Predict the structure.
Amino acid sequence: MTQAPFWGPDFQALDAEDPEIAGILLSELDRLRSGLQLIASENYTSPAVLAALGSTLSNKYAEGYPGRRYYGGCAEVDKAENIGIERAKQLFGAEHANLQPHSGASANIAVYGAFVKPGEKVLAMSLPHGGHLTHGSAVNFSGKWFDVISYGVRQDTELIDYDQVRDLARQHRPKMIICGATAYPRLIDFAAFREIADEVDAKLMVDAAHFIGLVAGKAIPSPVPYADVVSFTTHKVLRGPRGGMIVCREEHAKAIDKAVFPMMQGGPLMHAVAAKAVALKEAATPAYQDYAAQVVANSKALAEGLAEEGMRPVSGGTDTHLSLLDLQPLGVTGAEAEERSDAAGITLNKNAIPYDPQKPMIGSGIRVGTACVTTQGMGPVEMKEISTLIGRAIRTESPAEAAAIRQDVSGLVSKFPAYPR
Ligand code: DSN
Protein backbone atom coordinates (compact mmCIF):
# COMPACT_ATOMS: atom_id res chain seq x y z
CA MET A 1 0.00 0.00 0.00
CA THR A 2 1.58 3.27 -1.06
CA GLN A 3 -1.01 5.70 0.13
CA ALA A 4 -4.34 5.94 1.97
CA PRO A 5 -7.17 6.59 1.55
CA PHE A 6 -7.60 5.02 -1.86
CA TRP A 7 -10.51 6.47 -3.79
CA GLY A 8 -11.47 3.14 -5.22
CA PRO A 9 -14.67 1.11 -5.27
CA ASP A 10 -16.93 2.43 -2.54
CA PHE A 11 -20.16 0.49 -2.37
CA GLN A 12 -21.56 2.55 0.48
CA ALA A 13 -21.23 5.75 -1.55
CA LEU A 14 -23.07 4.12 -4.44
CA ASP A 15 -25.77 2.76 -2.14
CA ALA A 16 -26.31 6.19 -0.56
CA GLU A 17 -26.50 7.99 -3.88
CA ASP A 18 -28.22 5.45 -6.12
CA PRO A 19 -29.84 2.59 -4.18
CA GLU A 20 -31.63 1.43 -7.32
CA ILE A 21 -28.39 0.59 -9.15
CA ALA A 22 -26.69 -0.53 -5.92
CA GLY A 23 -29.53 -3.02 -5.45
CA ILE A 24 -28.99 -4.43 -8.92
CA LEU A 25 -25.27 -4.89 -8.19
CA LEU A 26 -26.15 -6.81 -5.04
CA SER A 27 -28.75 -8.95 -6.80
CA GLU A 28 -26.26 -9.80 -9.54
CA LEU A 29 -23.70 -10.79 -6.90
CA ASP A 30 -26.35 -12.99 -5.30
CA ARG A 31 -27.07 -14.56 -8.68
CA LEU A 32 -23.36 -15.37 -9.10
CA ARG A 33 -23.14 -16.74 -5.59
CA SER A 34 -26.25 -18.88 -5.64
CA GLY A 35 -26.11 -20.49 -9.08
CA LEU A 36 -23.78 -22.36 -11.39
CA GLN A 37 -22.15 -20.23 -14.09
CA LEU A 38 -21.23 -22.35 -17.09
CA ILE A 39 -21.16 -19.77 -19.90
CA ALA A 40 -17.89 -20.69 -21.64
CA SER A 41 -16.89 -17.06 -22.23
CA GLU A 42 -17.29 -15.84 -18.64
CA ASN A 43 -15.15 -15.94 -15.52
CA TYR A 44 -14.81 -14.33 -12.08
CA THR A 45 -12.20 -11.56 -11.98
CA SER A 46 -10.10 -11.12 -8.87
CA PRO A 47 -10.77 -8.30 -6.37
CA ALA A 48 -7.48 -6.72 -7.54
CA VAL A 49 -8.73 -6.56 -11.14
CA LEU A 50 -12.05 -5.14 -9.95
CA ALA A 51 -10.21 -2.49 -7.88
CA ALA A 52 -8.27 -1.29 -10.94
CA LEU A 53 -11.52 -1.23 -12.94
CA GLY A 54 -13.25 0.85 -10.29
CA SER A 55 -10.44 3.40 -10.06
CA THR A 56 -9.96 7.06 -11.04
CA LEU A 57 -8.02 5.94 -14.11
CA SER A 58 -11.48 5.85 -15.67
CA ASN A 59 -11.36 9.66 -15.73
CA LYS A 60 -8.31 10.06 -17.91
CA TYR A 61 -8.29 10.84 -21.60
CA ALA A 62 -5.17 9.37 -23.13
CA GLU A 63 -5.60 9.22 -26.89
CA GLY A 64 -2.40 7.93 -28.42
CA TYR A 65 0.21 5.65 -26.88
CA PRO A 66 2.62 5.99 -23.91
CA GLY A 67 4.94 8.94 -24.53
CA ARG A 68 2.86 10.05 -27.55
CA ARG A 69 -0.47 11.27 -26.19
CA TYR A 70 -2.82 14.00 -27.38
CA TYR A 71 -3.50 15.12 -23.76
CA GLY A 72 -1.40 16.26 -20.84
CA GLY A 73 -1.40 14.55 -17.47
CA CYS A 74 -0.73 11.09 -18.86
CA ALA A 75 2.43 10.28 -16.89
CA GLU A 76 0.71 7.82 -14.55
CA VAL A 77 -1.47 6.09 -17.12
CA ASP A 78 1.60 5.83 -19.38
CA LYS A 79 3.30 3.82 -16.66
CA ALA A 80 0.30 1.50 -16.29
CA GLU A 81 0.04 0.90 -20.04
CA ASN A 82 3.80 0.30 -20.43
CA ILE A 83 3.75 -2.23 -17.58
CA GLY A 84 0.80 -3.99 -19.22
CA ILE A 85 2.50 -4.06 -22.64
CA GLU A 86 5.68 -5.54 -21.17
CA ARG A 87 3.71 -8.14 -19.21
CA ALA A 88 1.76 -9.17 -22.33
CA LYS A 89 4.93 -9.49 -24.42
CA GLN A 90 6.58 -11.55 -21.70
CA LEU A 91 3.59 -13.80 -20.99
CA PHE A 92 2.85 -14.60 -24.63
CA GLY A 93 6.40 -14.42 -26.00
CA ALA A 94 5.18 -11.73 -28.40
CA GLU A 95 7.13 -8.98 -30.11
CA HIS A 96 4.40 -6.34 -29.75
CA ALA A 97 1.23 -5.84 -27.72
CA ASN A 98 -1.67 -3.40 -27.85
CA LEU A 99 -3.90 -3.32 -24.76
CA GLN A 100 -6.32 -0.66 -25.94
CA PRO A 101 -9.12 -2.49 -27.83
CA HIS A 102 -12.34 -2.06 -25.88
CA SER A 103 -13.52 -5.58 -26.75
CA GLY A 104 -12.78 -8.63 -28.85
CA ALA A 105 -14.93 -7.31 -31.70
CA SER A 106 -13.04 -3.99 -31.58
CA ALA A 107 -9.74 -5.84 -31.67
CA ASN A 108 -10.92 -7.76 -34.72
CA ILE A 109 -12.08 -4.61 -36.52
CA ALA A 110 -8.58 -3.22 -35.98
CA VAL A 111 -6.95 -6.32 -37.45
CA TYR A 112 -9.15 -6.12 -40.55
CA GLY A 113 -8.31 -2.39 -40.70
CA ALA A 114 -4.59 -3.11 -40.58
CA PHE A 115 -4.50 -5.84 -43.22
CA VAL A 116 -7.53 -5.77 -45.51
CA LYS A 117 -9.32 -3.14 -47.58
CA PRO A 118 -13.12 -3.13 -47.95
CA GLY A 119 -14.17 -5.59 -50.65
CA GLU A 120 -11.05 -7.75 -50.33
CA LYS A 121 -11.18 -11.46 -49.59
CA VAL A 122 -10.88 -13.07 -46.16
CA LEU A 123 -11.15 -16.78 -45.33
CA ALA A 124 -12.66 -17.59 -41.92
CA MET A 125 -14.64 -20.22 -40.01
CA SER A 126 -18.39 -20.05 -40.50
CA LEU A 127 -20.45 -18.99 -37.50
CA PRO A 128 -22.81 -22.02 -37.63
CA HIS A 129 -19.73 -24.27 -37.40
CA GLY A 130 -18.34 -22.43 -34.37
CA GLY A 131 -16.80 -19.21 -35.73
CA HIS A 132 -17.71 -15.70 -34.58
CA LEU A 133 -19.85 -12.83 -35.83
CA THR A 134 -16.70 -10.89 -36.76
CA HIS A 135 -15.49 -13.76 -38.94
CA GLY A 136 -17.79 -12.83 -41.81
CA SER A 137 -21.38 -13.01 -40.62
CA ALA A 138 -23.69 -11.23 -43.06
CA VAL A 139 -25.13 -9.05 -40.27
CA ASN A 140 -21.69 -7.91 -39.03
CA PHE A 141 -19.21 -5.32 -40.39
CA SER A 142 -17.03 -8.24 -41.49
CA GLY A 143 -19.66 -9.72 -43.78
CA LYS A 144 -20.93 -6.35 -44.96
CA TRP A 145 -17.59 -4.73 -45.82
CA PHE A 146 -15.39 -7.69 -46.78
CA ASP A 147 -15.72 -10.62 -49.14
CA VAL A 148 -15.58 -13.41 -46.58
CA ILE A 149 -15.39 -17.01 -47.69
CA SER A 150 -16.21 -19.58 -45.00
CA TYR A 151 -14.75 -22.94 -44.11
CA GLY A 152 -16.25 -25.36 -41.63
CA VAL A 153 -15.89 -28.70 -39.92
CA ARG A 154 -16.24 -32.13 -41.50
CA GLN A 155 -19.59 -33.78 -40.96
CA ASP A 156 -18.07 -37.14 -39.97
CA THR A 157 -15.45 -35.94 -37.46
CA GLU A 158 -16.76 -32.45 -36.58
CA LEU A 159 -13.13 -31.30 -36.76
CA ILE A 160 -11.90 -28.39 -38.90
CA ASP A 161 -11.69 -29.52 -42.50
CA TYR A 162 -8.09 -28.51 -43.30
CA ASP A 163 -8.41 -29.88 -46.86
CA GLN A 164 -11.34 -27.54 -47.41
CA VAL A 165 -9.37 -24.63 -45.91
CA ARG A 166 -6.49 -25.32 -48.31
CA ASP A 167 -8.76 -25.74 -51.33
CA LEU A 168 -10.66 -22.51 -50.60
CA ALA A 169 -7.42 -20.63 -49.99
CA ARG A 170 -5.98 -21.82 -53.33
CA GLN A 171 -9.23 -21.02 -55.15
CA HIS A 172 -9.85 -17.55 -53.67
CA ARG A 173 -6.36 -16.36 -52.61
CA PRO A 174 -7.64 -14.33 -49.62
CA LYS A 175 -5.67 -11.42 -48.19
CA MET A 176 -6.18 -12.79 -44.69
CA ILE A 177 -7.03 -16.15 -43.15
CA ILE A 178 -8.66 -16.27 -39.72
CA CYS A 179 -8.67 -19.21 -37.36
CA GLY A 180 -10.15 -19.31 -33.89
CA ALA A 181 -13.72 -19.98 -32.81
CA THR A 182 -16.31 -19.56 -30.10
CA ALA A 183 -17.77 -23.05 -30.10
CA TYR A 184 -14.99 -25.40 -31.18
CA PRO A 185 -13.89 -27.71 -28.35
CA ARG A 186 -10.71 -29.01 -29.97
CA LEU A 187 -7.17 -27.73 -30.46
CA ILE A 188 -6.51 -25.85 -33.69
CA ASP A 189 -3.54 -26.84 -35.87
CA PHE A 190 -1.87 -23.42 -36.15
CA ALA A 191 1.08 -24.86 -38.10
CA ALA A 192 -1.31 -26.13 -40.78
CA PHE A 193 -2.98 -22.71 -41.02
CA ARG A 194 0.45 -21.02 -41.26
CA GLU A 195 1.45 -23.32 -44.10
CA ILE A 196 -1.76 -22.59 -46.00
CA ALA A 197 -1.44 -18.84 -45.41
CA ASP A 198 2.16 -18.87 -46.66
CA GLU A 199 1.18 -20.85 -49.75
CA VAL A 200 -1.30 -18.18 -50.84
CA ASP A 201 0.61 -15.21 -49.38
CA ALA A 202 -2.12 -14.34 -46.87
CA LYS A 203 -1.81 -12.86 -43.40
CA LEU A 204 -2.73 -15.29 -40.61
CA MET A 205 -4.93 -13.88 -37.85
CA VAL A 206 -5.70 -16.07 -34.86
CA ASP A 207 -8.75 -15.00 -32.88
CA ALA A 208 -7.74 -16.59 -29.60
CA ALA A 209 -10.46 -14.99 -27.47
CA HIS A 210 -11.74 -18.26 -26.10
CA PHE A 211 -8.53 -20.09 -25.39
CA ILE A 212 -5.91 -17.39 -24.74
CA GLY A 213 -6.20 -17.97 -20.99
CA LEU A 214 -5.25 -21.61 -21.53
CA VAL A 215 -2.29 -20.46 -23.62
CA ALA A 216 -1.25 -18.03 -20.88
CA GLY A 217 -1.44 -20.86 -18.36
CA LYS A 218 0.53 -23.16 -20.68
CA ALA A 219 -2.30 -25.71 -20.74
CA ILE A 220 -2.49 -25.76 -24.56
CA PRO A 221 -0.09 -24.78 -27.40
CA SER A 222 0.35 -21.12 -28.31
CA PRO A 223 -0.63 -19.61 -31.68
CA VAL A 224 1.86 -16.74 -31.24
CA PRO A 225 4.82 -18.38 -33.05
CA TYR A 226 2.62 -19.08 -36.08
CA ALA A 227 0.38 -16.04 -36.44
CA ASP A 228 0.98 -12.61 -37.91
CA VAL A 229 -1.42 -11.34 -35.32
CA VAL A 230 -3.36 -12.77 -32.39
CA SER A 231 -6.47 -10.97 -31.15
CA PHE A 232 -8.35 -11.88 -28.00
CA THR A 233 -10.60 -10.83 -25.19
CA THR A 234 -9.26 -10.50 -21.67
CA HIS A 235 -12.30 -11.60 -19.69
CA LYS A 236 -12.72 -15.27 -20.53
CA VAL A 237 -10.42 -17.97 -19.11
CA LEU A 238 -7.73 -15.25 -18.81
CA ARG A 239 -9.84 -13.83 -15.95
CA GLY A 240 -9.16 -10.17 -16.63
CA PRO A 241 -11.49 -7.23 -17.12
CA ARG A 242 -13.97 -7.11 -20.00
CA GLY A 243 -11.92 -5.96 -22.97
CA GLY A 244 -9.72 -6.82 -25.93
CA MET A 245 -6.03 -7.09 -26.72
CA ILE A 246 -3.80 -7.77 -29.72
CA VAL A 247 -0.31 -9.23 -29.88
CA CYS A 248 1.65 -9.36 -33.12
CA ARG A 249 4.98 -9.53 -34.87
CA GLU A 250 7.08 -6.37 -34.70
CA GLU A 251 6.75 -5.89 -38.47
CA HIS A 252 3.00 -5.31 -37.96
CA ALA A 253 3.27 -3.18 -34.81
CA LYS A 254 2.76 0.19 -36.49
CA ALA A 255 -0.12 -0.98 -38.66
CA ILE A 256 -1.91 -2.56 -35.69
CA ASP A 257 -1.39 0.43 -33.40
CA LYS A 258 -2.65 2.85 -36.07
CA ALA A 259 -5.65 0.65 -36.75
CA VAL A 260 -6.62 0.57 -33.05
CA PHE A 261 -6.08 4.34 -32.69
CA PRO A 262 -6.94 6.55 -34.49
CA MET A 263 -8.64 4.38 -37.11
CA MET A 264 -11.04 2.40 -34.93
CA GLN A 265 -11.11 3.93 -31.45
CA GLY A 266 -10.65 7.24 -29.70
CA GLY A 267 -9.58 7.47 -26.07
CA PRO A 268 -8.55 4.17 -24.48
CA LEU A 269 -10.25 3.02 -21.26
CA MET A 270 -7.24 3.48 -18.98
CA HIS A 271 -8.92 1.83 -15.97
CA ALA A 272 -9.46 -1.24 -18.17
CA VAL A 273 -5.88 -1.07 -19.49
CA ALA A 274 -4.60 -1.02 -15.88
CA ALA A 275 -6.92 -3.90 -14.98
CA LYS A 276 -5.58 -5.87 -17.97
CA ALA A 277 -2.05 -5.30 -16.62
CA VAL A 278 -3.15 -6.70 -13.22
CA ALA A 279 -4.70 -9.77 -14.86
CA LEU A 280 -1.54 -10.38 -16.91
CA LYS A 281 0.52 -10.35 -13.71
CA GLU A 282 -1.87 -12.86 -12.13
CA ALA A 283 -1.77 -15.05 -15.25
CA ALA A 284 2.04 -15.29 -15.07
CA THR A 285 1.97 -17.13 -11.73
CA PRO A 286 2.35 -20.88 -11.09
CA ALA A 287 -1.07 -20.75 -9.38
CA TYR A 288 -2.64 -19.58 -12.63
CA GLN A 289 -0.91 -22.41 -14.55
CA ASP A 290 -2.43 -24.88 -12.10
CA TYR A 291 -5.78 -23.18 -12.66
CA ALA A 292 -5.53 -23.42 -16.47
CA ALA A 293 -4.65 -27.13 -16.29
CA GLN A 294 -7.58 -27.71 -13.92
CA VAL A 295 -9.98 -25.84 -16.26
CA VAL A 296 -9.15 -28.37 -19.01
CA ALA A 297 -9.30 -31.39 -16.68
CA ASN A 298 -12.67 -30.20 -15.39
CA SER A 299 -13.91 -29.60 -18.92
CA LYS A 300 -13.06 -33.18 -19.93
CA ALA A 301 -14.74 -34.52 -16.79
CA LEU A 302 -17.85 -32.43 -17.44
CA ALA A 303 -18.08 -33.60 -21.08
CA GLU A 304 -17.77 -37.22 -19.93
CA GLY A 305 -20.42 -36.71 -17.26
CA LEU A 306 -22.82 -35.09 -19.71
CA ALA A 307 -22.26 -37.97 -22.17
CA GLU A 308 -23.31 -40.35 -19.38
CA GLU A 309 -26.47 -38.23 -19.09
CA GLY A 310 -27.29 -39.04 -22.72
CA MET A 311 -25.91 -35.92 -24.45
CA ARG A 312 -23.51 -36.32 -27.37
CA PRO A 313 -20.26 -34.33 -27.09
CA VAL A 314 -19.66 -32.76 -30.52
CA SER A 315 -16.34 -34.09 -31.95
CA GLY A 316 -16.38 -36.76 -29.24
CA GLY A 317 -15.04 -34.61 -26.40
CA THR A 318 -12.91 -31.59 -25.65
CA ASP A 319 -9.28 -30.45 -25.34
CA THR A 320 -10.17 -27.04 -23.94
CA HIS A 321 -12.35 -25.17 -21.44
CA LEU A 322 -15.56 -25.75 -23.40
CA SER A 323 -17.76 -28.52 -24.70
CA LEU A 324 -20.57 -28.51 -27.19
CA LEU A 325 -23.32 -31.05 -26.49
CA ASP A 326 -25.78 -32.32 -29.04
CA LEU A 327 -29.13 -32.78 -27.28
CA GLN A 328 -30.93 -34.55 -30.12
CA PRO A 329 -30.58 -37.94 -28.40
CA LEU A 330 -32.65 -36.50 -25.52
CA GLY A 331 -35.28 -34.95 -27.80
CA VAL A 332 -34.71 -31.53 -26.25
CA THR A 333 -33.69 -28.37 -28.15
CA GLY A 334 -30.91 -26.03 -27.08
CA ALA A 335 -33.40 -23.26 -26.30
CA GLU A 336 -35.48 -25.60 -24.09
CA ALA A 337 -32.34 -26.79 -22.31
CA GLU A 338 -31.16 -23.24 -21.67
CA GLU A 339 -34.54 -22.26 -20.24
CA ARG A 340 -34.89 -25.37 -18.06
CA SER A 341 -31.33 -25.03 -16.76
CA ASP A 342 -31.96 -21.39 -15.95
CA ALA A 343 -35.03 -22.33 -13.93
CA ALA A 344 -32.80 -24.69 -11.94
CA GLY A 345 -30.12 -22.05 -11.21
CA ILE A 346 -27.72 -23.27 -13.91
CA THR A 347 -26.60 -20.64 -16.43
CA LEU A 348 -25.46 -22.01 -19.78
CA ASN A 349 -26.23 -21.18 -23.40
CA LYS A 350 -28.02 -22.85 -26.25
CA ASN A 351 -25.76 -23.30 -29.24
CA ALA A 352 -25.96 -24.42 -32.83
CA ILE A 353 -24.09 -27.63 -33.52
CA PRO A 354 -22.41 -28.24 -36.90
CA TYR A 355 -24.96 -29.09 -39.61
CA ASP A 356 -27.73 -28.16 -37.17
CA PRO A 357 -31.26 -28.83 -38.41
CA GLN A 358 -32.62 -26.16 -36.03
CA LYS A 359 -32.64 -22.37 -36.50
CA PRO A 360 -29.85 -20.52 -34.62
CA MET A 361 -32.28 -19.09 -32.03
CA ILE A 362 -33.35 -22.64 -31.13
CA GLY A 363 -30.24 -24.74 -31.76
CA SER A 364 -29.79 -28.46 -31.12
CA GLY A 365 -27.07 -28.04 -28.54
CA ILE A 366 -25.71 -26.38 -25.47
CA ARG A 367 -22.23 -24.98 -24.82
CA VAL A 368 -20.70 -25.30 -21.36
CA GLY A 369 -17.40 -24.01 -20.00
CA THR A 370 -15.49 -24.58 -16.80
CA ALA A 371 -13.66 -21.26 -16.22
CA CYS A 372 -16.01 -20.00 -13.48
CA VAL A 373 -16.50 -23.23 -11.55
CA THR A 374 -12.73 -23.85 -11.60
CA THR A 375 -12.08 -20.35 -10.25
CA GLN A 376 -14.47 -21.34 -7.44
CA GLY A 377 -12.17 -24.28 -6.66
CA MET A 378 -14.30 -27.13 -7.98
CA GLY A 379 -12.73 -30.33 -9.36
CA PRO A 380 -13.71 -33.51 -11.24
CA VAL A 381 -15.94 -34.79 -8.42
CA GLU A 382 -18.02 -31.63 -8.62
CA MET A 383 -18.08 -31.86 -12.45
CA LYS A 384 -19.78 -35.23 -12.10
CA GLU A 385 -22.30 -33.69 -9.72
CA ILE A 386 -22.87 -30.77 -12.12
CA SER A 387 -23.46 -33.20 -15.01
CA THR A 388 -26.15 -34.95 -13.00
CA LEU A 389 -27.76 -31.61 -12.09
CA ILE A 390 -27.76 -30.49 -15.75
CA GLY A 391 -29.17 -33.86 -16.84
CA ARG A 392 -31.99 -33.59 -14.31
CA ALA A 393 -32.68 -29.95 -15.24
CA ILE A 394 -32.80 -30.57 -18.97
CA ARG A 395 -35.13 -33.55 -18.66
CA THR A 396 -37.79 -31.90 -16.54
CA GLU A 397 -40.58 -29.44 -17.29
CA SER A 398 -41.80 -29.52 -13.69
CA PRO A 399 -41.39 -26.28 -11.70
CA ALA A 400 -41.26 -28.31 -8.47
CA GLU A 401 -38.37 -30.44 -9.76
CA ALA A 402 -36.61 -27.27 -11.04
CA ALA A 403 -36.92 -25.79 -7.55
CA ALA A 404 -35.51 -28.99 -6.02
CA ILE A 405 -32.54 -28.90 -8.41
CA ARG A 406 -32.04 -25.22 -7.57
CA GLN A 407 -31.75 -26.24 -3.89
CA ASP A 408 -29.11 -28.84 -4.78
CA VAL A 409 -27.23 -26.30 -6.92
CA SER A 410 -27.29 -23.89 -4.02
CA GLY A 411 -25.96 -26.59 -1.69
CA LEU A 412 -23.07 -27.30 -4.07
CA VAL A 413 -22.04 -23.70 -4.71
CA SER A 414 -22.26 -22.81 -1.00
CA LYS A 415 -19.20 -25.05 -0.53
CA PHE A 416 -17.32 -23.15 -3.28
CA PRO A 417 -18.46 -19.53 -2.95
CA ALA A 418 -17.79 -17.06 -5.74
CA TYR A 419 -16.62 -13.85 -4.06
CA PRO A 420 -16.76 -15.21 -0.49
CA ARG A 421 -18.62 -12.97 1.94
N1 DSN B 1 -19.91 -13.79 -26.96
C1 DSN B 1 -18.70 -14.55 -26.91
C2 DSN B 1 -18.95 -15.97 -26.59
O1 DSN B 1 -19.82 -16.23 -25.79
O2 DSN B 1 -18.29 -16.84 -27.10
C3 DSN B 1 -17.89 -14.41 -28.14
O3 DSN B 1 -17.79 -13.10 -28.48
DSSP finds 16 helices and 15 strands in the chain. The first helix runs from residue 11 to 17. The domain at 290-413 is CATH 3.90.1150.10 (Aspartate Aminotransferase, domain 1).
